[in-house]
Write a structure and sequence with these properties.
Number of strands: 6
Order of helices and strands: HHHHHHEEHEHEHHEHHEHHHHHH
Bound molecules: arginine
CATH topology of the largest domain: Fumarase C, Chain A, domain 2
Length: about 475
Protein backbone atom coordinates (compact mmCIF):
# COMPACT_ATOMS: atom_id res chain seq x y z
CA UNK A 1 0.00 0.00 0.00
CA UNK A 2 1.08 3.57 -0.68
CA UNK A 3 2.74 5.44 2.17
CA UNK A 4 0.61 7.79 4.25
CA UNK A 5 2.88 10.61 3.25
CA UNK A 6 3.84 9.34 -0.23
CA UNK A 7 2.25 12.09 -2.35
CA UNK A 8 5.30 14.29 -2.81
CA UNK A 9 7.79 11.42 -3.15
CA UNK A 10 8.81 9.65 -6.34
CA UNK A 11 11.62 7.35 -5.17
CA UNK A 12 11.55 4.53 -2.61
CA UNK A 13 13.01 4.75 0.86
CA UNK A 14 16.40 3.11 1.26
CA UNK A 15 16.01 -0.29 2.92
CA UNK A 16 18.20 0.43 5.92
CA UNK A 17 16.72 3.90 6.27
CA UNK A 18 13.31 2.26 6.42
CA UNK A 19 14.53 -0.07 9.13
CA UNK A 20 15.83 2.87 11.13
CA UNK A 21 12.66 4.88 10.60
CA UNK A 22 10.04 2.22 11.30
CA UNK A 23 8.76 2.01 14.85
CA UNK A 24 6.12 -0.71 14.47
CA UNK A 25 8.54 -3.21 16.01
CA UNK A 26 8.11 -1.54 19.41
CA UNK A 27 5.16 0.83 19.18
CA UNK A 28 2.80 -2.01 18.28
CA UNK A 29 2.02 -2.22 21.96
CA UNK A 30 0.22 1.11 21.71
CA UNK A 31 -2.52 -0.64 19.69
CA UNK A 32 -5.21 -0.43 22.36
CA UNK A 33 -4.55 3.24 23.12
CA UNK A 34 -4.31 4.06 19.40
CA UNK A 35 -7.62 2.44 18.50
CA UNK A 36 -9.44 3.84 21.53
CA UNK A 37 -8.18 7.30 20.54
CA UNK A 38 -9.37 6.82 16.96
CA UNK A 39 -12.82 5.60 17.97
CA UNK A 40 -13.28 8.72 20.11
CA UNK A 41 -11.88 10.90 17.33
CA UNK A 42 -14.37 9.50 14.80
CA UNK A 43 -17.13 10.59 17.15
CA UNK A 44 -15.60 14.07 17.46
CA UNK A 45 -15.45 14.43 13.65
CA UNK A 46 -19.11 13.52 13.38
CA UNK A 47 -19.92 15.90 16.24
CA UNK A 48 -18.27 18.71 14.30
CA UNK A 49 -20.22 17.77 11.15
CA UNK A 50 -17.06 16.91 9.16
CA UNK A 51 -18.23 13.37 8.54
CA UNK A 52 -21.73 11.95 8.73
CA UNK A 53 -23.01 9.89 11.65
CA UNK A 54 -23.20 6.97 9.22
CA UNK A 55 -19.54 7.36 8.27
CA UNK A 56 -18.57 7.63 11.93
CA UNK A 57 -20.46 4.43 12.65
CA UNK A 58 -18.61 2.68 9.81
CA UNK A 59 -15.29 3.88 11.16
CA UNK A 60 -16.11 2.79 14.70
CA UNK A 61 -17.29 -0.62 13.55
CA UNK A 62 -14.13 -1.10 11.51
CA UNK A 63 -11.90 0.09 14.34
CA UNK A 64 -13.61 -2.33 16.72
CA UNK A 65 -12.89 -5.12 14.27
CA UNK A 66 -9.21 -4.14 14.12
CA UNK A 67 -9.19 -3.97 17.92
CA UNK A 68 -10.62 -7.48 18.08
CA UNK A 69 -7.88 -8.74 15.75
CA UNK A 70 -5.18 -7.31 18.04
CA UNK A 71 -6.93 -8.65 21.14
CA UNK A 72 -7.04 -12.12 19.59
CA UNK A 73 -3.39 -11.91 18.55
CA UNK A 74 -4.54 -12.24 14.95
CA UNK A 75 -3.36 -8.89 13.59
CA UNK A 76 -0.78 -9.38 10.86
CA UNK A 77 1.82 -6.63 10.45
CA UNK A 78 2.61 -5.89 6.80
CA UNK A 79 6.05 -4.81 5.55
CA UNK A 80 4.68 -1.37 4.69
CA UNK A 81 3.42 -0.71 8.23
CA UNK A 82 5.69 2.07 9.43
CA UNK A 83 4.23 2.44 12.88
CA UNK A 84 1.14 1.49 14.86
CA UNK A 85 -0.83 4.45 13.48
CA UNK A 86 -0.25 3.52 9.84
CA UNK A 87 -0.79 -0.18 10.56
CA UNK A 88 -4.22 0.42 12.09
CA UNK A 89 -5.25 2.76 9.28
CA UNK A 90 -4.05 0.35 6.60
CA UNK A 91 -6.06 -2.50 8.12
CA UNK A 92 -9.10 -0.26 8.60
CA UNK A 93 -9.07 0.56 4.90
CA UNK A 94 -8.85 -3.12 4.01
CA UNK A 95 -11.89 -3.78 6.15
CA UNK A 96 -14.17 -0.82 5.38
CA UNK A 97 -12.79 0.73 2.20
CA UNK A 98 -12.22 4.35 1.29
CA UNK A 99 -14.20 5.88 4.13
CA UNK A 100 -11.22 4.88 6.31
CA UNK A 101 -9.40 7.79 4.68
CA UNK A 102 -11.66 10.25 6.51
CA UNK A 103 -10.49 9.24 10.00
CA UNK A 104 -7.28 11.26 9.91
CA UNK A 105 -9.07 14.53 9.03
CA UNK A 106 -7.53 17.38 11.04
CA UNK A 107 -5.39 14.93 12.95
CA UNK A 108 -1.66 14.38 12.65
CA UNK A 109 0.40 11.49 13.89
CA UNK A 110 1.99 14.16 16.08
CA UNK A 111 -1.08 14.74 18.24
CA UNK A 112 -2.04 11.10 17.77
CA UNK A 113 1.18 9.59 19.11
CA UNK A 114 1.26 12.04 22.02
CA UNK A 115 -2.31 11.02 22.87
CA UNK A 116 -1.54 7.31 22.55
CA UNK A 117 1.51 7.60 24.76
CA UNK A 118 -0.44 9.43 27.45
CA UNK A 119 -3.25 6.88 27.41
CA UNK A 120 -0.66 4.13 27.58
CA UNK A 121 1.15 5.79 30.50
CA UNK A 122 -2.07 6.23 32.46
CA UNK A 123 -2.74 2.49 32.22
CA UNK A 124 0.90 1.68 32.99
CA UNK A 125 0.76 3.85 36.12
CA UNK A 126 -2.33 2.02 37.40
CA UNK A 127 -0.62 -1.34 36.75
CA UNK A 128 2.57 -0.22 38.50
CA UNK A 129 0.63 0.99 41.51
CA UNK A 130 -1.05 -2.41 41.79
CA UNK A 131 2.35 -4.15 41.62
CA UNK A 132 3.76 -1.79 44.25
CA UNK A 133 0.75 -2.48 46.50
CA UNK A 134 1.47 -6.21 46.22
CA UNK A 135 5.00 -5.66 47.54
CA UNK A 136 3.72 -3.33 50.26
CA UNK A 137 1.28 -6.04 51.31
CA UNK A 138 4.14 -8.53 51.63
CA UNK A 139 6.11 -6.06 53.78
CA UNK A 140 3.06 -5.35 55.90
CA UNK A 141 2.34 -8.99 56.60
CA UNK A 142 5.96 -9.61 57.63
CA UNK A 143 5.71 -6.53 59.85
CA UNK A 144 2.56 -7.82 61.51
CA UNK A 145 4.22 -11.15 62.22
CA UNK A 146 7.28 -9.48 63.78
CA UNK A 147 6.13 -6.58 65.94
CA UNK A 148 8.25 -7.84 68.83
CA UNK A 149 11.14 -9.42 66.90
CA UNK A 150 14.22 -7.50 68.01
CA UNK A 151 17.13 -6.83 65.69
CA UNK A 152 20.01 -4.39 65.46
CA UNK A 153 19.31 -1.15 63.65
CA UNK A 154 22.28 0.17 61.69
CA UNK A 155 23.84 3.43 60.65
CA UNK A 156 27.01 3.27 58.55
CA UNK A 157 26.23 -0.47 58.60
CA UNK A 158 27.50 -0.42 62.20
CA UNK A 159 25.29 -1.63 65.02
CA UNK A 160 23.47 1.46 66.28
CA UNK A 161 20.33 0.90 68.35
CA UNK A 162 17.86 -1.97 68.80
CA UNK A 163 14.77 -1.90 66.60
CA UNK A 164 12.16 -4.46 65.60
CA UNK A 165 11.98 -6.29 62.29
CA UNK A 166 8.48 -4.82 61.87
CA UNK A 167 9.97 -1.34 61.98
CA UNK A 168 12.46 -2.27 59.25
CA UNK A 169 9.69 -3.72 57.04
CA UNK A 170 7.53 -0.65 57.48
CA UNK A 171 10.39 1.69 56.56
CA UNK A 172 10.29 0.15 53.08
CA UNK A 173 6.50 0.24 53.09
CA UNK A 174 6.57 4.04 53.35
CA UNK A 175 9.28 4.41 50.71
CA UNK A 176 7.03 2.50 48.34
CA UNK A 177 4.01 4.56 49.41
CA UNK A 178 5.85 7.67 48.23
CA UNK A 179 6.67 5.95 44.93
CA UNK A 180 3.00 5.20 44.43
CA UNK A 181 1.98 8.75 45.31
CA UNK A 182 4.58 10.13 42.92
CA UNK A 183 3.03 8.02 40.18
CA UNK A 184 -0.42 9.40 41.01
CA UNK A 185 1.01 12.88 40.67
CA UNK A 186 2.56 11.96 37.32
CA UNK A 187 -0.86 10.71 36.18
CA UNK A 188 -2.33 14.16 36.81
CA UNK A 189 -0.01 15.68 34.22
CA UNK A 190 -0.10 12.70 31.87
CA UNK A 191 -3.88 13.04 31.93
CA UNK A 192 -3.89 16.17 29.78
CA UNK A 193 -5.13 15.50 26.23
CA UNK A 194 -3.09 16.70 23.23
CA UNK A 195 -5.57 15.41 20.61
CA UNK A 196 -6.91 18.32 18.58
CA UNK A 197 -3.50 19.96 18.28
CA UNK A 198 -2.96 18.70 14.72
CA UNK A 199 0.63 18.59 13.52
CA UNK A 200 1.46 21.65 15.61
CA UNK A 201 -0.96 24.50 14.92
CA UNK A 202 -4.30 23.15 16.10
CA UNK A 203 -7.36 21.53 14.54
CA UNK A 204 -9.28 23.56 11.92
CA UNK A 205 -12.56 21.66 12.21
CA UNK A 206 -13.98 22.93 15.49
CA UNK A 207 -14.00 19.53 17.14
CA UNK A 208 -15.23 19.50 20.75
CA UNK A 209 -12.01 18.78 22.58
CA UNK A 210 -13.65 18.81 26.02
CA UNK A 211 -16.07 16.08 25.00
CA UNK A 212 -13.25 14.14 23.37
CA UNK A 213 -11.17 14.37 26.56
CA UNK A 214 -14.09 13.19 28.67
CA UNK A 215 -14.71 10.26 26.31
CA UNK A 216 -11.08 9.17 26.62
CA UNK A 217 -10.85 9.66 30.38
CA UNK A 218 -8.47 12.63 30.29
CA UNK A 219 -8.80 15.21 33.05
CA UNK A 220 -8.06 18.28 30.91
CA UNK A 221 -7.14 19.43 27.39
CA UNK A 222 -3.77 20.94 26.52
CA UNK A 223 -3.62 24.73 26.39
CA UNK A 224 -1.10 25.17 23.59
CA UNK A 225 -0.89 23.07 20.43
CA UNK A 226 2.87 23.59 20.05
CA UNK A 227 3.55 22.47 23.60
CA UNK A 228 1.06 19.61 23.25
CA UNK A 229 2.87 17.85 20.39
CA UNK A 230 6.37 18.49 21.72
CA UNK A 231 5.80 17.66 25.38
CA UNK A 232 7.27 14.38 26.60
CA UNK A 233 7.67 15.54 30.20
CA UNK A 234 5.24 12.85 31.29
CA UNK A 235 7.52 10.17 29.85
CA UNK A 236 10.56 11.61 31.61
CA UNK A 237 8.59 11.91 34.85
CA UNK A 238 7.33 8.37 34.68
CA UNK A 239 10.88 7.17 33.97
CA UNK A 240 12.12 9.12 36.98
CA UNK A 241 9.44 7.57 39.15
CA UNK A 242 10.51 4.15 37.87
CA UNK A 243 14.18 4.94 38.48
CA UNK A 244 13.61 6.07 42.07
CA UNK A 245 11.42 3.04 42.70
CA UNK A 246 14.31 0.99 41.31
CA UNK A 247 16.71 2.70 43.70
CA UNK A 248 14.39 1.83 46.60
CA UNK A 249 14.20 -1.79 45.47
CA UNK A 250 17.98 -1.91 45.23
CA UNK A 251 18.32 -0.73 48.82
CA UNK A 252 15.79 -3.27 50.05
CA UNK A 253 17.64 -5.88 48.02
CA UNK A 254 21.01 -4.94 49.47
CA UNK A 255 19.72 -5.21 53.05
CA UNK A 256 18.42 -8.67 52.26
CA UNK A 257 21.64 -9.75 50.52
CA UNK A 258 23.54 -8.76 53.67
CA UNK A 259 20.99 -10.24 56.08
CA UNK A 260 20.95 -13.55 54.20
CA UNK A 261 24.73 -14.02 54.33
CA UNK A 262 26.01 -16.70 56.73
CA UNK A 263 27.71 -14.02 58.82
CA UNK A 264 24.35 -12.38 59.55
CA UNK A 265 21.88 -15.21 58.86
CA UNK A 266 19.00 -12.95 59.91
CA UNK A 267 16.86 -14.22 57.04
CA UNK A 268 16.70 -17.27 54.80
CA UNK A 269 15.28 -17.13 51.30
CA UNK A 270 12.91 -19.87 50.20
CA UNK A 271 14.17 -22.20 47.49
CA UNK A 272 11.68 -20.65 45.08
CA UNK A 273 13.65 -17.41 45.12
CA UNK A 274 17.21 -18.72 45.31
CA UNK A 275 19.55 -20.45 42.91
CA UNK A 276 22.58 -22.66 43.29
CA UNK A 277 26.14 -22.63 42.00
CA UNK A 278 27.29 -24.82 39.16
CA UNK A 279 30.59 -25.43 40.94
CA UNK A 280 30.07 -25.12 44.70
CA UNK A 281 27.42 -27.59 45.85
CA UNK A 282 26.79 -25.85 49.17
CA UNK A 283 25.85 -22.47 47.66
CA UNK A 284 22.39 -20.95 47.87
CA UNK A 285 22.47 -17.54 46.26
CA UNK A 286 20.04 -14.63 46.70
CA UNK A 287 19.70 -14.05 42.95
CA UNK A 288 16.18 -12.63 43.16
CA UNK A 289 17.28 -9.64 45.17
CA UNK A 290 20.68 -9.35 43.48
CA UNK A 291 18.87 -8.87 40.18
CA UNK A 292 16.45 -6.42 41.82
CA UNK A 293 19.54 -4.52 43.00
CA UNK A 294 21.04 -4.61 39.50
CA UNK A 295 17.91 -3.47 37.65
CA UNK A 296 18.24 0.01 39.11
CA UNK A 297 21.07 0.45 36.59
CA UNK A 298 18.91 0.12 33.51
CA UNK A 299 16.01 2.02 35.12
CA UNK A 300 18.34 4.96 35.74
CA UNK A 301 19.82 4.56 32.26
CA UNK A 302 16.40 4.73 30.61
CA UNK A 303 15.67 8.02 32.36
CA UNK A 304 18.99 9.49 31.25
CA UNK A 305 18.42 8.24 27.73
CA UNK A 306 15.12 10.12 27.37
CA UNK A 307 16.33 13.29 29.10
CA UNK A 308 19.34 13.36 26.80
CA UNK A 309 17.17 12.75 23.75
CA UNK A 310 14.85 15.64 24.66
CA UNK A 311 17.60 18.11 25.45
CA UNK A 312 17.95 20.86 22.86
CA UNK A 313 15.08 19.70 20.61
CA UNK A 314 13.57 22.60 18.70
CA UNK A 315 9.82 23.28 18.73
CA UNK A 316 7.76 21.22 18.08
CA UNK A 317 7.62 17.53 17.17
CA UNK A 318 10.94 16.02 16.10
CA UNK A 319 11.49 12.45 15.00
CA UNK A 320 13.93 12.12 17.89
CA UNK A 321 10.89 11.76 20.07
CA UNK A 322 10.12 8.36 18.61
CA UNK A 323 13.02 7.27 20.85
CA UNK A 324 10.93 7.85 23.97
CA UNK A 325 9.28 4.46 23.62
CA UNK A 326 11.85 1.74 24.02
CA UNK A 327 13.31 3.16 27.26
CA UNK A 328 9.82 3.61 28.68
CA UNK A 329 8.67 0.13 27.72
CA UNK A 330 11.88 -1.35 29.07
CA UNK A 331 11.47 0.32 32.45
CA UNK A 332 7.85 -0.81 32.71
CA UNK A 333 8.71 -4.38 31.68
CA UNK A 334 11.62 -4.46 34.10
CA UNK A 335 9.44 -3.43 37.02
CA UNK A 336 6.54 -5.67 36.00
CA UNK A 337 8.91 -8.60 36.44
CA UNK A 338 10.97 -7.38 39.38
CA UNK A 339 8.22 -6.13 41.70
CA UNK A 340 6.28 -9.42 41.93
CA UNK A 341 9.50 -11.41 42.34
CA UNK A 342 10.65 -9.22 45.24
CA UNK A 343 7.14 -9.48 46.72
CA UNK A 344 7.29 -13.27 46.44
CA UNK A 345 10.77 -13.40 47.94
CA UNK A 346 9.54 -11.35 50.91
CA UNK A 347 6.32 -13.30 51.33
CA UNK A 348 8.28 -16.54 51.59
CA UNK A 349 11.21 -15.12 53.54
CA UNK A 350 12.06 -17.01 56.72
CA UNK A 351 13.04 -14.74 59.61
CA UNK A 352 15.66 -16.11 62.00
CA UNK A 353 14.59 -14.19 65.08
CA UNK A 354 17.21 -15.87 67.30
CA UNK A 355 20.04 -14.74 65.06
CA UNK A 356 18.70 -11.19 64.99
CA UNK A 357 18.49 -11.13 68.74
CA UNK A 358 21.96 -12.66 69.17
CA UNK A 359 23.42 -9.83 67.08
CA UNK A 360 22.32 -7.28 69.67
CA UNK A 361 25.20 -6.03 71.78
CA UNK A 362 24.77 -4.25 75.14
CA UNK A 363 26.96 -1.46 73.76
CA UNK A 364 23.97 -0.60 71.56
CA UNK A 365 22.37 0.65 74.78
CA UNK A 366 25.05 3.27 75.39
CA UNK A 367 22.57 5.90 74.19
CA UNK A 368 20.11 4.59 76.77
CA UNK A 369 22.83 4.98 79.44
CA UNK A 370 23.18 8.64 78.43
CA UNK A 371 19.39 8.98 78.50
CA UNK A 372 19.40 7.50 82.04
CA UNK A 373 21.67 10.37 83.12
CA UNK A 374 19.54 12.93 81.27
CA UNK A 375 16.51 11.75 83.24
CA UNK A 376 18.56 12.54 86.36
CA UNK A 377 19.13 16.10 85.20
CA UNK A 378 22.57 15.74 83.55
CA UNK A 379 22.85 17.85 80.36
CA UNK A 380 22.84 15.57 77.30
CA UNK A 381 26.30 16.59 76.06
CA UNK A 382 27.84 15.64 79.40
CA UNK A 383 25.70 12.50 79.65
CA UNK A 384 26.90 11.46 76.18
CA UNK A 385 30.51 11.99 77.28
CA UNK A 386 30.08 9.97 80.48
CA UNK A 387 28.37 7.10 78.67
CA UNK A 388 31.27 7.14 76.20
CA UNK A 389 33.72 6.86 79.08
CA UNK A 390 31.81 3.88 80.43
CA UNK A 391 32.06 2.24 76.97
CA UNK A 392 35.81 2.89 76.92
CA UNK A 393 36.22 1.53 80.44
CA UNK A 394 34.36 -1.68 79.55
CA UNK A 395 36.47 -2.04 76.42
CA UNK A 396 39.73 -1.58 78.36
CA UNK A 397 38.65 -4.24 80.84
CA UNK A 398 37.53 -6.63 78.14
CA UNK A 399 33.96 -6.52 79.48
CA UNK A 400 30.63 -5.96 77.83
CA UNK A 401 29.03 -2.68 78.84
CA UNK A 402 26.44 -4.40 81.07
CA UNK A 403 29.23 -6.28 82.91
CA UNK A 404 30.74 -3.18 84.59
CA UNK A 405 30.60 -3.37 88.38
CA UNK A 406 28.91 -0.83 90.61
CA UNK A 407 32.37 0.53 91.48
CA UNK A 408 33.21 0.83 87.78
CA UNK A 409 30.10 2.92 87.15
CA UNK A 410 30.86 5.08 90.20
CA UNK A 411 34.39 5.65 88.94
CA UNK A 412 32.95 7.19 85.78
CA UNK A 413 30.39 9.37 87.58
CA UNK A 414 28.68 9.38 90.94
CA UNK A 415 25.45 10.08 89.07
CA UNK A 416 25.36 6.35 88.29
CA UNK A 417 23.30 4.50 90.87
CA UNK A 418 22.87 0.72 91.10
CA UNK A 419 19.64 1.06 89.12
CA UNK A 420 21.70 1.80 85.99
CA UNK A 421 21.58 -1.97 85.44
CA UNK A 422 17.88 -1.64 84.57
CA UNK A 423 18.95 0.20 81.42
CA UNK A 424 20.30 -3.04 79.97
CA UNK A 425 17.12 -4.37 78.47
CA UNK A 426 16.72 -4.28 74.70
CA UNK A 427 12.96 -4.61 75.16
CA UNK A 428 12.95 -1.60 77.48
CA UNK A 429 15.04 0.41 75.02
CA UNK A 430 12.66 -0.27 72.14
CA UNK A 431 9.64 0.38 74.36
CA UNK A 432 11.01 3.73 75.52
CA UNK A 433 10.82 5.18 72.01
CA UNK A 434 7.11 5.67 72.17
CA UNK A 435 6.76 8.76 69.99
CA UNK A 436 4.83 8.59 66.71
CA UNK A 437 7.13 6.81 64.26
CA UNK A 438 9.12 5.19 67.10
CA UNK A 439 9.87 1.57 67.96
CA UNK A 440 7.53 0.92 70.91
CA UNK A 441 4.86 -1.71 70.46
CA UNK A 442 2.19 0.96 70.69
CA UNK A 443 3.90 3.11 68.05
CA UNK A 444 4.44 0.12 65.74
CA UNK A 445 0.80 -0.94 66.08
CA UNK A 446 -0.27 2.59 65.22
CA UNK A 447 2.10 2.53 62.23
CA UNK A 448 0.55 -0.72 61.04
CA UNK A 449 -2.91 0.83 61.34
CA UNK A 450 -1.73 3.77 59.23
CA UNK A 451 -0.16 1.46 56.66
CA UNK A 452 -3.33 -0.60 56.34
CA UNK A 453 -5.39 2.56 55.95
CA UNK A 454 -2.97 3.77 53.27
CA UNK A 455 -3.39 0.53 51.32
CA UNK A 456 -7.18 0.59 51.64
CA UNK A 457 -7.30 4.14 50.35
CA UNK A 458 -4.90 3.37 47.48
CA UNK A 459 -7.02 0.34 46.54
CA UNK A 460 -10.10 2.51 46.31
CA UNK A 461 -8.41 5.11 44.13
CA UNK A 462 -7.11 2.62 41.61
CA UNK A 463 -10.60 1.76 40.28
N1 LIG B 1 6.27 6.80 15.08
C1 LIG B 1 6.24 8.20 15.37
C2 LIG B 1 6.69 8.44 16.81
O1 LIG B 1 6.67 7.54 17.55
C3 LIG B 1 4.86 8.73 15.19
C4 LIG B 1 4.82 10.19 14.88
C5 LIG B 1 5.31 10.42 13.53
N2 LIG B 1 5.18 11.79 13.17
C6 LIG B 1 5.83 12.30 12.15
N3 LIG B 1 5.68 13.55 11.89
N4 LIG B 1 6.63 11.56 11.41
O2 LIG B 1 7.08 9.53 17.19
Amino acid sequence: MAKLWGGRFSADTDALMKQLNDSIRFDIRLWDADIRGSIAYAGALAGAGIITRREAAQLVKGLRAVHAEFAAGAFVVQPGDEDIHTAVERRLKELIGDVAGKLHTGRSRNDQVATDMRLFCLQAIADLQAQIAQLQTALLSQARAHVTTLMPGYTHLQRAQPITFAHWCLAYFWMLARDSERLADCARRAGVMPLGSGALAGNPFAIDRQALAAALGFNAVSQNSLDAVSDRDFVAELLFDCALLGVHLSRLAEDLVIYSSAEFAFVTFSDAYSTGSSLMPQKKNPDAVELARAKSGRLTGNLLSVLTMLKGLPMTYDKDMQEDKEPLFDSLDTLALTLPVVAGALDTLHINADRMRAALDPAMLATDVAEYLVRRGVPFREAHHLAGRAVALAESKGLRLNELSEADWRSVSNQFEPDVRAVFSFEQSVASRDVAGGTSLRAIREQIRQARAWLRKAGKHSH
